[in-house]
Amino acid sequence: FFKPQFDQVVLGKVIIRSTELDEDVAQELLQYSSELPDIPTVIGNTMCTHDFYEGQGRLDGALCSFSTEEKLEYLRKANEAGVRNIEMESTVFAAMCRVCNLKAAVVCVTLLNRFEGDQISTPHDVLLEFQQRPQRLVAHFIKKRLGLIS
After folding, report:
1. What is the DSSP letter of 112?
2. Is the pLDDT of residue 69 over 90?
3. Which residues form the Nucleoside phosphorylase domain (predicted)?
4. pTM for this one?
5. What is the rounded CA–CA span in Å between residue 81 and residue 90?
6. In order of start, what are the domains of the chain with their CATH numbers?
7. Strand spans (E) along the chain
8. Which helix (H) or strand (E) holds 97?
């Protein structure tokens, strides 16, 4: 729905929690990313879904209840809403950080342009390098915050 919220059922009641994260932390991560080679970084919204296939608008799953045109229209709407990444974990993380008043950001790797297809065709060695990018950025962020590097 492109809403920054997590709907959690507690004792049979729906509790709506904000998933808004800290803009300053995001800007700081973006700034520090420019200090690292080969880590192109953008700030955008991460859309969290309940599953990898239909929830993410994929056409390649065992179940698919929509057309290619419907998928592309949905992805256009997501893009217009600022979505730059889709995954399945960040909503609870963001909501719990917000409830606990913790400053946080989500750092993800986007593996493919979903307007061009659903299959990941990136070579394994490149995927391994992509996997290390968030770790490198977050480690750099922590070192900067602790004053271990200037």
Report:
1. S
2. yes
3. 13-143
4. 0.88
5. 17
6. 5-51+83-146 (3.40.50.1580)
7. 5-10, 13-18, 45-48, 83-87
8. helix 90-99
